[in-house]
Amino acid sequence: EKAVNLKKDLAEMQEWMTQAEEEYLEKDFEYKSPEELENAVEEMKRAKEDVLQKEVRVKILKDNIKMLAAKVPSSGQDLVTELNVVLENYQLLCNRIRGKCHTLEEVWSCWIELLQYLDLETAWLNNLEERVQMTENLPDKVDAVNDALESLESVLRHPADNRTQIRELGQTLIDGGILDDIISEKLEAFNARYEELSHLAVSRQIALEQQLQTMRETDHMLQVLQENLAELDRQLTSYLTDRVDAFQMPQEAQ
């Protein structure tokens, strides 16, 4: 009777493992939204816990069968053979569910990391857009133009590492068919805004550099002219002080 019960327990255990495999491993998942992906991660975590909780039952079953085989070798040997099959299948099931759970957790982590990088780069784009707007309607002064140019250039020196991460993380998920529509839409919008703002910022940078160069050249010319006028004023004052007749002055002084 004990052998019959143990044989029944082995059959139930095998049936449970077959159902678990069908439910957690053979079902096709389509992750088209973050909610679906997150739910799949949580489901696989529960599956892993569920399978591992059966470890105690498997151990008790194993001990009982070995005890029976030791007492009644004739009826216990067949059970040991069946037990070995069940143990092998159980270990395989545990490994596969652990593997799938780990994979889904990695995919979820990849998605979260992508969102974090997008947030960082979006904040940078907002800053860049603000700096570009600050270059409009500047006072016609060298200091003001120079400060605006330096401010814009400091933002443009932003490293490309984050954009590389965005591209690689996005492509990894898309290649795996994970959230591909959502990610493609996000990347398209981000890249379009990046290209537009970067082009605008560089164009504005070039314009400011040219404006600054023109203003500095003009300031230099005015400074030279002012120095010449000051020298001329000094000479004229000297002539007047000495009461020099106009016709005795150099032509340019007349």
Automatic annotation (TrEMBL):
Keyword match Repressor: no
Coiled-coil residue spans: 3-64, 208-242
Pfam family, one: Spectrin
Keyword annotations from UniProtKB, A to Z: Coiled coil
Protein name, as recorded: UTRO protein
Gene3D superfamilies: 1.20.58.60
